[in-house]
Every structure is written in C-alpha cells, then in structure tokens.
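Dear colleague,

Thank you for sharing your sequence with our group. We've completed the structure prediction you requested, and as agreed, I am returning the results in plain text so they can be pasted directly into your records. Please verify that the sequence below matches your submission; if there's any discrepancy, let me know and we will rerun it promptly.
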Amino acid sequence: MMAVTTLSLPSLIMLKKVIKPKLLGTFIVICTVGIIIVGYGFNAIAYLLV
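Please find the predicted structure tokens below.
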C-alpha cells in the first residue's frame, strides 16, 4: 500500500514541479528500495504474525 501513494503518477507529477529532477530520481530510488526491504522484512517474519 505504501507504493500506491508514494510512487503514484499524480504525486510524482506534483513533485516534479517542485523539486529538481536529480532529487526526484533519488527520492524514487530510495522509496522503492525502502518499500522492497520492508516487504521482504514482513515476509521474513510472517510466520510469527500468523
């Protein structure tokens, strides 16, 4: 669900108007990697939550 709001096209279009392209690219990469790490983390501990 984080990826839906963080990396949505409308939010990226709004951010593109406010920040520089290099910073926007960095934001996208950091958020994508963070979302993937959190997903793998939850999958790793899923047996404890069920």
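Summary note from our side: The helical segments are 2-6, 9-18, 21-44, 46-49.

Kind regards,
the structure core
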